[in-house]
Specification:
This protein is α+β, with helices and mostly antiparallel strands. The protein is built from 11 helices and 18 strands. The radius of gyration is 24 Å and the shape is elongated. The C terminus is likely disordered. The structure holds adenosine-5'-triphosphate (ATP).
């Protein structure tokens, strides 16, 4: 299958900053794709290169297999929805949506048909006579989306589409955005620094850092199987520890499942994959000693912060309410944090040393 959108060897330099540093990317027709990364990682620049607002120093952009690198933005069969929605304030919703089609000189009947369908998909049918100031933030956001969808681009590029909305509305709009995307059958490329949004919305996610793509995969692959320390630290919370915190005996137990592990590697364990027990586990169990420093109540779960073994490395455990009731961990307790070997991820060495920076930005 030909990719709906493809970037080949893309590079863009701004003075000393390499904003996009050798990106290869294929987005398939009808796919919901997210570019995820901390501030300054180059995701907006990459999106602007796709749209044609930025010219790459190297590399090319293809839409449905055709090279569009030399084409102006309005000549490319794709559309971009900006952070600020820029609706026409004096026009009704209907006119805001049909305006672009009138500019294209489509026939009246075709305009009515397409606009009607698009307003339906975006849930705006009852609001078509209103003006933007008579709408809520979420409704205005949907008008902007309708305006982009109605032109039936092959690919729609969206820069932080939900960042202007408050939390509750954002969650609702995520569901609507995904539904509208699947119904319209258009490939979406969303830029976001919000990992929950990326994991919740996208069919596939590219995690970016320092102008490069660190990992591409389904949300589950990126979350469960991060390839390096940056991805492990940026996507969700994670305990990242040197293999050396494990005793030789524990390393042997881990190696039975994962194979031999080089001693200079880091491992990652999700807080929700650790369980706490009060008595020392048996010979076949993989565990770390933990001294409890603090517990933080979250209603549905309890975050337990402690130190691993005798190393004083921070170790966080997330207990469900049920498990928290049974164990009742308290500050000062010496307990055991148990993990299934398959939930220990051995990370590739971080050649850039940027993992720690990424974690700081993510918090
Ligand atoms: P954010 O989430 O903060 O928008 P981003 O991941 O979208 O960040 P970009 O806007 O692509 O990042 O910027 C990547 C790098 O390139 C940053 O260091 C930024 O300062 C730099 N940069 C972007 N545009 C320009 C420009 N026009 N001139 C100079 N430097 C730029």
């Amino acid at each position: 299958m030909t990719a709906a959108l493809e970037g080949r060897g893309l590079r863009r330099q701004f003075g000393p900053v390499t904003a996009v540093d050798g990106v290869d990317l294929e987005i398939m027709p009808g796919e919901f794709f997210a570019l995820l990364g901390p501030s300054g990682c180059g995701k907006t620049t990459l999106l602007r290169i796709f749209a044609g607002f930025e010219t790459p120093d190297q590399g090319s952009v293809l839409v449905n297999g055709a090279d569009v690198t030399a084409l102006k933005p309005n000549r490319r069969p794709l559309n971009m929805m900006f952070q600020s929605y820029a609706l026409f304030p004096h026009m009704t919703v209907w006119r805001n949506v049909t305006y672009g089609l009138e500019m294209e000189r489509l026939e009246e009947a075709e305009i009515r048909k397409r606009a009607g369908e698009t307003l339906e998909v975006t849930g705006l049918t009852d609001l078509e006579d209103r003006k933007p100031h008579e709408l809520s933030g979420g409704q205005r956001q949907r008008v902007a989306l309708a305006r982009a969808l109605v032109k039936r681009p092959k690919v729609l590029l969206l820069d932080e589409p939900l960042s202007a909305l408050d939390r509750g509305l954002r969650e609702q709009m995520q569901v609507e955005l995904k539904r509208a995307q699947k119904e319209a059958g258009i490939a979406f490329v969303v830029v976001t620094h919000d990992q929950e949004e990326a994991l919740g919305l996208a069919d596939r996610v590219a995690v970016m850092q320092g102008g490069r793509i660190r990992q591409i995969g389904t949300p589950r692959e990126v979350y469960d199987a991060p390839e390096d320390e940056f991805v492990a630290g940026f996507v969700g919370s994670n305990n990242i520890l040197p293999v050396a915190v494990l005793s030789m005996e524990m390393r042997t137990r881990l190696a039975r499942t994962l194979g031999p592990i080089e001693s200079d590697r880091q491992i990652a364990i999700r807080p929700e994959r650790l369980a706490l027990v009060t008595t020392q586990p048996g010979a076949d169990t993989l565990y770390l000693k933990i001294k409890i420093l603090e517990t933080v109540y979250h209603g549905a779960d309890l975050i337990v912060a402690g130190e691993a073994g005798d190393t004083r490395r921070p170790l966080t455990v997330r207990l469900s309410a049920g498990a928290a009731d049974r164990i009742q961990p308290k500050r000062g307790d010496d307990l055991y944090a148990v993990v299934e070997p398959i939930h220990v991820r051995v990370l590739a060495p971080d050649a850039t040393g940027a993992g720690a920076l990424g974690r700081d930005v993510a918090k």
